[in-house]
Amino acid sequence: MKSFAGQLLVAMPQMMDPRFARSVVYLCAHSEEAGAMGLIVNKLLDSLTMDELLSHLKLEASRLNRASPVLFGGPVDPGRGFVLHSGDYREDATLAVGDEFGITATLDILRAIGVGEGPHRSLVALGYAGWAPGQLDAEIQANGWLSVEADPELVFDGDLDGKWARALAKLGVSVSMLSTDAGHA
C-alpha cells in the first residue's frame, strides 16, 4: 500500500458528500493499519476568526490574527482543534509530516500564535477528516479523489475559493476537462 501522508487529496466533481465537495484535504497520516486522517484546507468554519477562538479559550490575541479564519477541518470531532503549520515550529506533541509541515493540537501552539511567536505559516481547523483502514484507498480507486504533492504556497494561501482549481492545475488538469460521471477504463 502506498501512503499518501503529506499529499493533498483533491475531491473529484462527482463527490456527492457536501462536506467534501470541491475540497482539498492535507493528509496528515495514512497507513494500512490505522486508516487515514487529514484536514480540509479550503473550507471556512462559518465566520469564526482566530481572535474569537483565542478569546473563547481565554488566550491572548495579538493584532496579527484578527482576520485569520478558522477552517472546517472535517466532520469528525468538530470540537477539537488542529494547527497545520510550517516545519519551523516543533513541540513534543507535534506530528512532523516531512520537513515542511507539522500538525499540533495543543493550547501551547495557540498561545504562541496568539502572541505572534508561533510557526511562520499556519492554519487552524476544527474537526478532521478520517477514514477507516482501507476506506480511503477504496475511495481513490473509485475515482473519488486525486492526489497531488502538497506545497506550502498552496496549503497556506488565503485564497480558499481558488485552492481546488489550483490543486487540480498542479496535476495538469483543468476544471473544464472534468466530468461529474465516473468510470473505469
Task: Give an overview of the whole structure.
The two termini are 22 Å apart. The protein is globular, with a radius of gyration of 16 Å. Helix content is 19%, strand content 34%. Strands 1, 2, 3, 4, 5, 6, 7, 8, 9 and 10 form a 10-stranded mixed β-sheet that branches. With 185 residues, the protein is an alpha+beta fold. It contains 5 helices and 10 strands; from the N terminus they run ββββαββββαβαβαα. The protein has helices spanning 50-56, 107-114, 135-141, 152-156, 163-170; strands at residues 7-11, 24-31, 35-40, 44-49, 69-72, 76-86, 95-97, 101-104, 122-131, 145-149.
One letter per element, helices H and strands E, the order comes to EEEEHEEEEHEHEHH
The assigned structural class equals alpha+beta
Unreliable parts:
none
Biggest sheet layout: 10 strands, mixed
Strand content: 25-35%
The average pLDDT value, as a whole number, equals: 88
Radius of gyration, taken over Cα atoms and rounded to an integer in Å? 16 Å
Shape: globular
Number of helices: 5
How many strands? 10
Q: How much helix, percentage-wise, in residues?
A: 10-25%
First and last CA, distance = 22 Å
Brief account:
The chain is an alpha+beta fold. It contains 5 helices and 10 strands; from the N terminus they run E-E-E-E-H-E-E-E-E-H-E-H-E-H-H.
Question: What descriptive keywords fit this protein?
Answer:
10 strands, alpha+beta, 185 residues, 10-stranded mixed sheet
List the helices and strands and how they pair.
Elements: E1 7-11, E2 24-31, E3 35-40, E4 44-49, H1 50-56, E5 69-72, E6 76-86, E7 95-97, E8 101-104, H2 107-114, E9 122-131, H3 135-141, E10 145-149, H4 152-156, H5 163-170
Parallel strand pairs: 5-9
Antiparallel strand pairs: 1-2, 1-10, 2-3, 3-9, 4-5, 6-8, 6-9, 7-8
